[in-house]
Amino acid sequence: MTATKAKKAKLNPADYAKFIEQIELADIRLTAIKAEVKAPLEKEAKYNTVCAGEAAFKTSKGVFTALATYRVRIVDPETKKPVAVVVETFAAEYRSELPMTDEIFAAFCQLNLPLNVWPYMRELTHNTFARMNIVGVVAPMLKLRIMSGLGKK
After folding, report:
1. Looking at residue 9, what is its pLDDT?
2. Where are the beta strands (DSSP E) in 1-128?
3. Positive or negative, the Cα torsion across 136, 85, 68, 89?
4. Average pLDDT by consecutive 10-residue portion of the chain (153 residues)?
C-alpha cells in the first residue's frame, strides 16, 4: 500500500461522478487521538474554536483507505494562543473497482470524505473536550465546495 497526500488538480466533473457512483463505504474507524489542555481556562471567558484538517490515501486492490486528520483548537481570542487541542485521525475504507488517483482525491477529500467522517469528528471532539471539563465546544459546521470549484480555492 502507498500513501498519497491530497494535491490540487483539475478534474472533469463527469469523471468524478463516474468514480463516486461506483464506490461503497466499507468502514470508518478512529486510528489516533491526542488531547491536551495547554493553559487553564476561565469559566466566564469566551474562546474561539478553530478546526483544520488534512487528508491522504492508501490504495490496494479493490480498496482505498482515506485518512482524515483534524486538529481542533480552543483559542484565547486575546492572546491568539491555543488553550486546548484535540488531534484526531480517522480511516475511512472504501471498496472501489476504479483506482483512486491524486486528481480524484484532490476533489474527494474536499467533497465526499468530509461528508462521511465529519459527524464522527464532531461527536468525538465534543465528548473529548467535555471529558477535559471544557463543555459546550461545537466543531464548526461543515461547508463543502461546489462542483464547479474543483481544484480551485
Report:
1. 55
2. 2-5, 24-37, 48-60, 63-75, 82-95
3. negative
4. 52 93 98 94 83 94 96 92 95 97 94 94 94 85 59 39
Q: Cell 474561539, residue?
A: 48
Distance CA 1, CA 67 (A): 13
Cell of 120: 464522527
Cα–Cα distance, 114 to 110 (Å, whole number):
7
82 Cβ contact list (under 8 Å, min separation 6): 38, 50, 73, 74, 75, 76
Which pLDDT score is estimated for 41? 82
Instruction: Give the up-direction half-sphere exposure of residue 74: CA atoms within 13 A in the CB hemisphere.
Output: 27
98 CB-side CA count, 13 A: 15
Which residue, 124, 53, 46, 121, is CA-closest to 83?
Answer: 46
Sign of CA dihedral 33, 26, 51, 129: negative
